[in-house]
């Protein structure tokens, strides 16, 4: 027993070995990486080495194109999205550009005939997301959106056990995602300054990783509100010499789903050596916890996340029932993050 008299939490397994590989999920597809930043380099690039002869990388930055050429020397490299031709046959495009550009880039990719997997956030609003879904349907293409945390095996297990009465009557769900953040070195590169712009914030950056699994478990909330701080620590932008004078580096969201209360905490904490992320469901007879983070493996960083994303794309393409549920869950996630999340403005 714990000190508070409750039984200890049962922790669900974080990772499941043997996750399907991209060569199994999308064996005959051409793949396009639009944007070759950190996510592309660390998560997706290593999983595409074996099929790099059918990979195209679209990247505006000459430095990042050079990084792509080193990692995927047989891949085709393009300077701009305007250089990408219409898809020939089945092709999947991974939209990995900065958040504020996601919706416009996804629209362009769909119009070129690509299936699209969009990194988070998929669109600025739920309404814009549904417009993109409608375009995909008219084009006969599939559209999926990260994060894939909502589809981790442990989250699937948690959802099944909670719904089967594994913790008695559910009453609380708590989620957190804490990370060092983009200014962890005391400054931020000009290419990443958008993280602190009007169209982004800690909620939009880290929130989806927790909100999406909570939506998967509980659905759409009856009410939800965010409360965000406004840290008055200047952040230099290098190399341009500008300074971001104030930014929100932490937020807490509280919502109600019927009789269940949910709490979400997201924060940038520069001293953290690694991400700390979890979700816990508490009921009348016990609780279940799951680690939402996926620490890199020594040989293949983030392979579960990358291949989980490819598997999500496969499921959206193949299963209409799953696709409809995914579309609805992404819309709800965006409602929580945008419509409600942006209501609490930073203090100025």
Automatic annotation (TrEMBL):
InterPro entries: Gfo/Idh/MocA-like_OxRdtase_N, NAD(P)-bd_dom_sf. It comes from the Bacteria. Gene3D superfamilies: Dihydrodipicolinate Reductase, domain 2 (3.30.360.10), NAD(P)-binding Rossmann-like Domain (3.40.50.720). Pfam families: GFO_IDH_MocA. One of its GO terms (molecular function) is nucleotide binding. Residues 29-143 form the Gfo/Idh/MocA-like oxidoreductase N-terminal domain. This is Gfo/Idh/MocA family oxidoreductase. It comes from Micromonospora craniellae.
């Amino acid at each position: 027993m714990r000190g508070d008299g409750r039984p200890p939490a049962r922790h669900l397994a974080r990772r499941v070995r043997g996750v399907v590989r991209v060569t199994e999920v999308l064996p005959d597809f051409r793949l396009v990486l639009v944007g070759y930043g950190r996510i592309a380099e660390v998560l997706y690039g290593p999983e595409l080495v074996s099929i790099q002869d059918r990979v195209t990388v679209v990247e505006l930055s000459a430095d990042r194109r050079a990084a792509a050429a080193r990692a995927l020397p047989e891949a085709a490299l393009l300077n701009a999205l305007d250089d990408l031709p219409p898809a020939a046959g089945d092709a999947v495009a991974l939209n990995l550009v900065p958040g504020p550009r996601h919706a416009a880039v996804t629209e362009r990719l769909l119009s070129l005939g690509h299936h699209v997997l969009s990194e988070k956030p998929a669109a600025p609003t739920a309404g814009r997301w549904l417009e993109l879904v409608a375009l995909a349907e008219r084009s006969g293409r599939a559209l999926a959106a990260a994060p894939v945390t909502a589809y981790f095996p442990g989250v699937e297990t948690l959802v099944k056990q909670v719904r089967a009465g594994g913790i008695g009557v559910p009453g609380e769900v708590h989620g957190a995602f804490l990370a060092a953040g983009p200014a962890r070195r005391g400054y931020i590169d000009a290419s990443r300054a958008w993280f602190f712009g009007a169209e982004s914030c800690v909620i939009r950056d880290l929130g989806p990783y927790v909100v999406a699994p909570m939506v998967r478990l509980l659905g759409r909330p009856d009410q939800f509100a965010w409360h965000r701080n406004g840290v008055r620590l200047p952040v230099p932008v290098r190399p341009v010499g500008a300074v971001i004078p104030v930014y929100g580096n932490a937020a807490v969201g509280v919502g109600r789903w019927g009789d269940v209360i949910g709490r979400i905490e997201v924060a940038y904490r520069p001293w953290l050596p690694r991400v700390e992320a979890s979700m816990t469901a508490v009921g009348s007879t016990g609780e279940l916890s799951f680690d939402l983070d996926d620490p890199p493996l020594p040989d293949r960083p983030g392979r579960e996340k990358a291949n989980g994303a490819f598997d999500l794309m496969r499921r959206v393409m193949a299963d209409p029932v799953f696709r409809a549920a995914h579309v609805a869950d992404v819309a709800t996630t965006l409602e929580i993050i945008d419509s409600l999340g942006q209501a609490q403005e930073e203090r100025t």
